[in-house]
What does this fold into?
Amino acid sequence: MKRLKLRIDGPGGKLETLVNDPGTERKGIALIAHPHPQHGGTMDNKVVQTVASTLFGLGYVAVRPNFRGVGMSEGDYDHGKGEVEDMLAIHKFVSGHYPELPLILVGFSFGAYVQNQVGRVLGTQRVVMVAPAVNMFDFDGVAPNSVVIHGAQDELVPLEAVQAWTQSHGTALAVVEGADHFFHRKLPQLQQTLVDLCQC
It folds into this structure.
């Protein structure tokens, strides 16, 4: 088991990236995207940390970068386009070190928007969108093998909007009762939902 903090070359500069590697029994790579950079989103967001620790516990190499312009990552916010390129660059680097491992993509809020785009480029075992901001960004379709986790009391992205979006695309939706957008006091329920969806 090891924990690495790297600065990986991306199209807009070096990208600060945290890698938690469970060791020789690793079962896949989990690439995790944080919420909106201009609203305080970072790799250290509590939902992102919960996702990373949960998937690490399931045996995945948990990889969470800071998008361009966040923390020690170079570059500037690029409205999703550059952030998709960032995630593709991170995947290329990490998969080169862990060849032939299956890939899970997870994104929270804005990060779900980014991962939806990434998942349409890469072949993935699973794309998990946590509280996807479907009312703020044009998702323009859905990535294969996608599932959505959403809080019933989300105050930023109404559950009704997510229900309509998932139904229109035939995408599975897991609702966490009582949870707001940031899953305040509901992180254990988020964790269990993630385990149920990704333990395969």
Strands lie at 2-10, 13-21, 28-33, 60-65, 103-108, 126-130, 146-151, 172-176.
